[in-house]
Design a protein that fits this description.
Helices cover 20% and strands 22% of the residues. The protein is an alpha/beta fold. The strands form two sheets. The chain has a six-stranded parallel β-sheet with strand order 2-5-1-6-7-8. The protein has a two-stranded antiparallel sheet with strand order 3-4. Helix 1 crosses helix 4.
Length: 186
């Protein structure tokens, strides 16, 4: 049984193009935040069809038989799979609603067009344009070449290669990221 939440959940998105370093930064932030005794969850947007199940396993067989949901649990892990009857477009808010409420931080990777406060992850070597001039939800930029930013900004610019500093920045500004779900409970 998990402890009841003692502090409000904080949520921040990480937006950027493929190859910019979002996954690497999120992966390192998990370790730095966890080392501070914080519980961290991740919401990740998948662009393509994906499957976490293995053909032939019991849970796969249950899903293939037509189960709407399959929950698999052990004393260390719980996995919920839901098979939509029709294609569904879920917002990060829908996915956050599925998470345990006692988590301290939710790091959302992808969902670059969402209304979550986000950190832009940008590397000029990707050849992709920056988002910060046109996205009011971007609150900071993590980059490996701040001098290459194409437009001046008043946003905090953090070193993408210093995840400890990025974690410090998150903790320092955590009150900005307290999550209030826009979803209305029935």
């Amino acid at each position: 049984m998990m402890d009841a939440p003692t502090t409000p959940m904080k949520v921040i998105g990480f937006a950027g193009e493929s190859g910019a370093g979002k996954t690497g930064l999120v992966e390192k932030l998990i370790g730095h935040l966890k080392a501070r005794g914080l519980r961290v969850s991740v919401v990740k947007h998948a662009h393509h069809s994906f499957d976490v199940d293995q053909p032939g396993k019991d849970s796969w067989r249950h899903r293939e038989a037509g189960a709407f949901e399959v929950v698999v649990a052990s004393h260390q892990r719980l996995v919920l799979q839901r098979q939509f009857e029709q294609q569904a477009t879920l917002s990060p808010h829908h996915l956050i609603a599925e998470l345990y409420t006692g988590v301290d931080w939710v790091l959302v990777e992808g969902f670059k067009d969402s209304d979550l406060l986000k950190m832009e992850v940008w590397r000029p070597c990707t050849g992709k344009a920056v988002r910060y001039p046109h996205d009011d939800f971007i609150v900071a930029i993590a980059t490996d070449e701040p001098q290459a930013l194409p437009q001046p900004t008043n946003l905090d610019v953090l070193d993408l290669n210093d995840p400890q500093r990025v974690a410090d920045w998150l903790i320092q500004h955590q009150d900005r990221f307290v999550y209030q779900s826009p979803l209305v409970n029935p």
